[in-house]
Write a structure and sequence with these properties.
Blueprint: H1 6-25, H2 34-43, H3 46-68
Helix pairs in contact: 1-2
Length: 80
Amino acid sequence: MTAPNSAERKTCWDARDHLWKCLDDNDDNVASCQRFQSEFEAKCPAQWVKYFTKRRDFLKYKEKMQTEGFTPAEGPQGAS
C-alpha cells in the first residue's frame, strides 16, 4: 500500500471529522451515524480507521478524567 497523497489525506480527515461531529451530536450512538461510519471506512486506510477510533476513545476518556476526576475502585481497607 502506498501512502495517501495530500488530497486523499484531506478527504479522510474530512470524513473522520463528519463522523466525530455526528457521534458528538448523537451521544456516541453509532447506529445514528452509520452513513458517516461507512464513508469514513471507505475513504481512509484501514490502519488509519483503527488509529482514529482509538484516538477518539482516548480523547473522550481524557476529557472525562479532566472534568469528573479520578475515583479509585473500592479495594481492601487497612494495612496489609
